[in-house]
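Contributing: when you submit paired examples, paste them exactly as shown. First protein:
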Amino acid sequence: MTAEPRPGAPVPSIDPRTGNVRAHPAREAGPADVHRAVTAAHRTLDALADRHRRAALLHAAADLLDAARSEVLAAADAETALGETRLTGELARTTNQLRTFAETAADGGHLDVRIDRADPATGRPDLRRTKAPLGVAAVFAAGNFPLAFSVPGGDTASALAAGCPVVVKAHPGHPETGELCARLLRRAAEDVGLPADVVTTVHGFTAGTHLVQHPLTAAVGFTGSLRGGRALHDLAAARPRPIPFHGELGSLNPVLVTEGAAATRPEQIGTGLAASFTLGHGQFCTKPGLVLLPAGHPALEKAAVTAAAQAPAAPLLDPRIRDAYLTGAARRAALPGVEVLLAPGPAPTPEAPLAVRPGILAVAAADLHDLLLDECFGPLTVLVRYRDDADLHTALDRLPGTLTATLHHAPDEPPARTRPLLARLTALAGRLVLNSWPTGVAVTPAMQHGGPYPAATTPTTSVGTAAVHRWLRPVTYQDAPQELLPAELRD
């Protein structure tokens, strides 16, 4: 067992294509480092009180990230092997959500102001409700999105929009990218007259636990594994003063294909599935990891296998994730009754010795093992063949909470047939997808990115403008003089 690095130890930046150490851009944070970061962030709360200044910060951060595009993309690709095309789109999404949350902050609609004026006839007092920031937000960067869910990502943007300073626990998979983005965000703060410490970063596994336990940390945003997220969630709940832990922990994202859909468009569904579960090398949190489809439709399965086999071999985000993917896929393939339609495994190339290929497994619904209901991170999906409605509903009963659930049905299937299926899926997921695919998440007011546990630990969203509400608490002022009210509550 490898010993945990001590405070002050260098944090390596590793090339996921080769496994070679590139550089040591940061150092492991100890308890004293975490304490300095959190207390420095806490001192900036008053400076963030002006929501228009917060909006200016978010706009400035987006502009600086765009201006540093070449440097940011080069660092992110070197540490994740996601490629310039994918990362260019991710940077655009990142700067777009920064600007979107800037508009949210400036508009003030997220404060949900409500005013009930005094009514002498009934004796009701004057009541005025708004929302106030919770305090320092601890954000855990995600491995699969080095920009959009990391240091400059949606958790950071929404927390700053709410008026909460942020301490980011950088991800060990892309420490150089995290440090570069943190410098840009801190420079943006200074450019608009705010303290740089509205955003700070810390590195290291133990730094994360100290960050969650620090008495001035007011809330946590986490995107990562079920095991790690649940451990941190339990720490947050066990504090003398428990705090909200908004965790996105893992998701199976089941797809349900009806008999009518499988019969009328098998090739379209099969190729669409392959494109979705191999997108980003299967490292999206919305990857469809399990597909319920009627038995006896070889054309659909063949189309999926043929299309997935043509996906290029590629490295995963880091050697640890690669090892977990290969081990997890092998364990699932070895289960009784599981058929390997496309074998996952190593697929080295001259440019990427650690590259892997995607896999497709199949199993009868009656043989659906518990392990197949756990997310396998990477380009693997499982086809579950059901014989009849009883088979299907037995499988649905076993599915865990999930970020998305997808229903593929035929247009001529009666609503009396499809509506109950959609209702079953609605109980499982935060976003329902019909005759499409779940990979890709739009940053819009209506987006919901969260779901019942274990997909998430709270019934909120980490994407879209509604994410700002995770960092706020309602406050009502009763019979307060005008001059003592927050500006948004005054007559």
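Second protein:
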Amino acid sequence: MQHDSLEKKRFLQNTFKLTQHNTDIKTEIMAGITTFMTMAYIIIVNPLIMGETGMDQGAIFTATCLSAAVATLIMAFLANYPFVLAPGMGLNAFFAYTVVLGMGYSWEFALTAVFIEGIIFIILTFFNIREAIINVMPMNIKNAVSVGIGLFIAFIGLANAGIVVANPATKVSLGDMGNPIALVAIIGLIITGILLAKNVKGALLIGIIATTIIGVPFGVTSMPTGFVSAPPSLAPIAFKLDFKNIFSMDMLVIMFTFLFVDLFDTLGTLVGVASKADMLDKDGKLPKAKQALFADAVGTTFGALMGTSTVTTYVESASGVAVGGRTGLTAFTSGVLFLLALLFSPIIRIIPAAATAPALILVGLFMMSPIKKIDLDDFTEAIPAFLTIIMMPLAYSIAEGITFGILAYVFLKMLTGRTKELSIPMYILAILFILKFAM
């Protein structure tokens, strides 16, 4: 028995190169659980959003878990990075509310657009085009992406808890602090903050569990209806692609939108979280970027076949990195938990937004440290970095933050006579961003 245990440890050490990354099995597993807990909401939210199109919600639940698990396990073994993937928020809303409900296309048509996007991503990854985009981004922009993601993820946490709410007069305002959800989230924030201050291992995970329990008497956490249930069948939505009208202008615009948002959301998340974890090399490049992007591309293609929207790298991966996750063992742990969620959905579904909100808010803090590396004295560097940071939470999009940052960088360098600092790919990116706005 002891021999088997040693063999398993040796396998994990060798597979994920834990010693080289100054980490250990316990830390990586804890990080994987933490990441999963902070993004488990997608298991519930994705079926609700996509179910608006008439798709079977039970089948979407199964497709969500399977596509997240497959993409994340590819990330774990191929790239050995602690990044976790799942159907992307925002992309699923575009799928449901714009393409299907807004434009009147069938959900089968929308899935076909996602499938084609995934195939294009595989081709782009094979020819290193996506990796080249990461490498060409200026270092100040890369550091700004990390900070912007920090503000963005903190804003998501505050909004999920009802601490900040929409306001027609002021755009956003303070929510009702007497609301049980906000109150439980604030209690959870205090508890998690104390745990972090005391350097308690797994503080974020313990905070999520403690806040979930505290939510019971407040009526925020529902008691589980059971512990185990069989996963719903995929039959109503799997392999339901519709290739009619694939050469129409609408298909081109829809596919380009999926492509653009997924491309720069993924690039932004990879760069931002990697910057925080000091995974970028001395030239600001991400080693094994090709393998990481391949996981995203295959996940999107597989997800479309299963019946869900675009799969992308999740910004919540930062929560696992924040507690020490540095290798694919973190991703592997999260991937296995997505598979287990197929059976233990009654337990997973009781975790309220109020319990994950404190973790997201504090991860926002952890993501801020690269701001110290940004050159704030050179305005041709500082302004693009600032726009990258501020537009992510305000536009509610990592992709739009990168868009504004890159455009500002190119225009400022051009108009101040510093074109030598610009590369051809940067000009191409700027043109593509302008075309995106025009479309």
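If you have annotations for the second protein, write them as plain sentences, like these:
Residues 92 and 208 are 25 Å apart (CA to CA).
The chain has a mean pLDDT of 88.
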